[in-house]
Automatic annotation (TrEMBL):
SMART domains per the UniProt record, alphabetical: AAA
GO molecular function: ATP binding; ATP hydrolysis activity
Occurrences of domain ABC transporter (ranges): 2-227
UniProt keyword list: ATP-binding, Nucleotide-binding, Transport
Protein name: ABC transporter ATP-binding protein
Transport among keywords: yes
Length: 276
């Protein structure tokens, strides 16, 4: 669904952020985009959404070059930025103004998600708190029913009940037709939601693997359960899971995303070598 080919991008005369980057993303998945501060996550999302123009190469969504921003591309994608400023209108006016651009907009769904998020329906949106504004935009983005939904740090500013609600709502809207990309530092918020991890590091996509694929190759265990021979990465922590070991057929578990991310950006090549 998304084809990124030889994408080369930099802001102004600054050095390049991406140099011939390639990536393919498919429908029916929730992708988690991870990277250190400044790695270029937001910039990659903006390239996909056609908000910036590459120096070379391209991003295509459903066969349309993003940077051309043709109507058939725009009506099938919704981008929720990290920073947002909602206009001085109420939720009904905001939904009406937006629905116009999205043929599959579902107004009932918008009101339902707002209610689930406990956001007041009345009043001007620009007077809501940051977290409430974020929830309005998430509700709107989901209600557009676009095949591509891009969210940059969506759980930033959400309180704990809202994060739980967010996970429920996102899981319920994923269909085989939809591709959701979430950039985040709050990996623990989204651990159970993301089915494929993408890690950007040193201007490259160093990992693009499904959780199932990852778990078929490595396991996450407490140090006490790790045999010394197969330890790929270890963090010193007093308790809990802190060790990555090469896959063993007798173990099952979940991906400890934070641990995996640390191993990768720490320059630990053993983990990446096993995963590749
Ligand atoms: N509009 C801009 N003009 C010039 N440089 C920019 C602009 N936006 C981002 N940058 C630079 O591009 C680099 C990547 O920024 P980006 O926001 O894409 O990273 P990020 O991975 O999303 O970071 P964070 O995790 O801190 O949000 C940074 O060095 C940043 O200073």
């Amino acid at each position: 669904m998304i084809e990124i080919s030889n994408l080369t991008f930099g802001y102004g005369l600054k050095s390049l952020l991406f140099n011939s980057l390639n990536l393919k993303l498919e429908r029916g998945h929730i992708y988690g985009l991870l990277g250190k501060n400044g790695a270029g996550k937001s910039t990659l999302l903006k390239n996909i959404a056609g908000l910036v123009v590459p120096k070379a190469g391209f991003c295509k969504v459903n066969g349309h070059k993003s940077s051309r921003r043709v109507p058939s591309f725009l009506q099938e994608q919704f981008f929720i930025p990290e920073e947002l400023y909602l206009p001085a209108v109420n939720a009904a006016q905001f939904a009406k103004g937006t629905a116009h651009f999205y043929p599959k907009f579902d107004l009932d769904m918008f009101w339902k998600i707002l209610a689930d998020f406990d956001v007041p329906h009345e009043g001007m949106l620009n007077k809501l708190s940051f977290g409430q504004q974020k929830k309005v935009l998430i509700a709107l983005g989901l209600a557009t029913n676009t095949s591509l939904l891009i969210m940059d740090e969506p759980t930033n500013g959400l309180d704990i009940p809202s994060k739980i609600q967010f996970r429920k709502v996102i899981a319920s809207v994923l269909t085989d037709e939809r591709c959701i990309i979430i950039s985040t530092h709050q990996v623990r918020d989204l651990d159970s939601l993301i089915d494929t991890l993408i890690v950007l590091n040193n201007k490259e996509v160093v990992l693009n693997k499904s959780v199932d694929d990852i778990l078929s190759k490595i396991q996450f265990v407490p140090a006490s359960k790790a045999g010394s021979a197969d330890v790929l990465y270890q963090e010193s922590q007093s308790m809990g899971v802190n060790t990555i070991v090469a896959g063993r057929e007798d173990t099952f578990g979940k991906v400890e995303t934070e641990l995996l991310f640390n191993a990768i950006v720490d320059g630990n090549n053993s983990v990446l070598t096993v995963l590749r």
